[in-house]
């Protein structure tokens, strides 16, 4: 599922989501939680195509609006989610089955690898000036995690 998601959004340079109450469609994580409180972290849901996003317009998301973000915007969104202690959900169905939860920076690493592999041109306009800057931040995050584990 992850491989198809990565390949599709890098190829199309677009990812889809449901906007619900001026935010992403969300659910509680079944995988990740805050260690101190044992509380599940929120998961923002994304799809590689408009059809699957629209198919999830049910129940609490019935009034959701299918929207899209560019590949570059999605990378920036993922970094923001990492800071906010959120997970990324991909490929979920309306009943929250069939999906996969990911750490945002792990997803960004996979996206960057696919961008490099396919030599896809990317142009950032907000937080980053280049793909090299994205890679630099990923490396810094890895160093920070390694430092924390050493404590």
Would you write up a description of this structure?
The protein has 151 residues and is an alpha+beta fold. 42% of the residues lie in helices and 26% in strands. The chain is built from five helices and seven strands; from the N terminus they run H-E-E-E-E-H-E-H-E-E-H-H. The protein is globular and about 40 Å long. The chain starts with a helix and ends with a helix.
The share of residues in helices is 40-55%
**What kind of sheet is the major sheet?**
4 strands, mixed
The percent range for strand residues is 25-35%
Using the CA coordinates, give the radius of gyration. 15 Å
| Form type | globular
Q: How many angstroms separate the termini?
A: 35 Å
Which descriptors apply to this entry?
alpha+beta; 5 helices; single chain; 151 residues
Write the layout of secondary structure elements.
Elements lengths: L1 H11 L1 E7 L2 E2 L1 E9 L4 E8 L3 H5 L10 E6 H13 L3 E4 L9 E3 L1 H15 L12 H20 L1
Parallel strand pairs: 4-6
Antiparallel strand pairs: 1-2, 1-5, 3-4, 6-7
Helix pairs in contact: 1-4, 3-4, 4-5
Summarize the structure.
The chain is an alpha+beta fold and 151 residues long. It is built from five helices and seven strands.
